[in-house]
DNA sequence: AACCCGAACAACCGCAAGGAC
DNA sequence: GGTCCTTGCGGTTGTTCGGGT
């Protein structure tokens, strides 16, 4: 099946985006929503490849993008998730609200990857300081986790599978321990399992609560207007399936930018991931947000 | 002040999956 | 069922910027 080029290269702008281009793209997407990237540049009046528009929007212009330095907690989370998932940046990014896969990938390649490379080369816990700005204590903590993972590598595969369904926990538990987990369905599920979880523990809400749920996941009113119905349909669909079963069947474990664990099937038992949660807490949302 | 170098980040590219027809 | 199109992902390259000499 021959692939057609994503766009004609002739007459198109390349390289850095100008403020005007950003404004045009943002305004267009705000007015018409995402999607149809191939035809978007023409409709918006941009001399850009659709792919380039999509990337610019996803990695830079999206309103929910968190800018600024990666915090210590986020770094720790990235390290742990990388140990678990390998270079599946989109999945890792899905666990870090407001961070993009590209950002995390860059951060890894420029900072953490080198650090871990040096660590493994030295083969010791000797201090390595490629990034002196990071706190030593935090760094040691990260290193110890990295070395733990080296003993127990669990890199699943390097190619991500596309998300085809979005799974959002139907009810945001009031218990503060679960509040942080609300944005981390994997943790929610694991905790649920640890507690002998069932749909009774996390009763699923009806579609009427969708707006609040979406807001809890960082959607603004525009998002809800644009996609609320779609998400609510998903909610209603999933409401007919017990929560844990739905997660396994749908294979999704993140909100919005999730993955498909279905392929892991025999090789990946979600319970086996519990070791990640055994010794230490995942960073809470309050800690992650800068 | 000029130059060099490395880090950080933005953007591009090729490939593959999934859906529509 | 096959083909084509769209979208998303991960790897790589290019550019910018700041610090050191």
TrEMBL record:
Keyword Repeat found: yes
Sequence ranges of Polar residues compositional bias: 117-134
GO cellular component, one term: nucleus
UniProt keyword annotation of tRNA processing present: no
Principal localisation: nucleus
Alphabetically ordered keywords of this record: DNA-binding, Nucleus, Repeat
Protein name: Uncharacterized protein
Organism: Malus baccata
